[in-house]
Design brief:
Length: 154
């Protein structure tokens, strides 16, 4: 796919986008159960501190989405509160490396600015090197690494 020929339209996600959003969400979070994710997406639509945007091509086909939120709890490295947060971003594989993710992030950042955020945080798994590179390409910088532990109490 050549980025010179790709026209992308970014809009706020509505109820009419739920099926496409869910299909892409299940690709991003394959371990998530469909019914649970569907409810989570509906909750985002009803939330005042979360917003999602969808990218569509000229034919109206959904090709990506971004979920952002306004957080007032601690966000690693943030200098101010509230802080924007990148909760999830996905672009269909054949449309990647064409500026779709940048356009989605820009839409999310514009909404976050309107909600008094001056920074945006994000996270990914330590093992997800591709996601780490993706974040860095978008201008994020690493704030810290964290390993979670759990012990059974007997």
């Amino acid at each position: 796919m050549n980025s010179k020929n790709l026209k992308v339209f970014i809009n706020k996600i509505t109820e009419n986008d739920l099926d496409s959003w869910l299909k892409m969400g299940l690709k991003l979070w394959p371990d998530c159960e469909s019914g649970e994710l569907s409810q989570d997406l509906r909750n985002i639509l009803e939330s005042s501190n979360q917003k999602s945007f969808m990218a569509k091509n000229e034919e109206g086909e959904a090709i990506g989405f971004v979920n952002v939120s306004v957080r007032v709890d601690y966000v690693e490295g943030a200098k101010k509160s509230p802080t924007g947060y990148l909760e999830g971003i996905f672009v269909e594989e054949k449309y990647r490396k064409n500026g779709v993710a940048q356009a989605l992030i820009k839409a999310g950042e514009d909404w976050l600015k309107q909600n008094n955020c001056t920074q945006i945080g994000s996270d990914t798994w330590l093992s997800n090197i591709d996601s780490q590179k993706f974040h860095e390409k978008l201008g994020f910088h690493e704030e810290e690494k964290l390993v979670h532990y759990l012990k059974e109490i007997r």
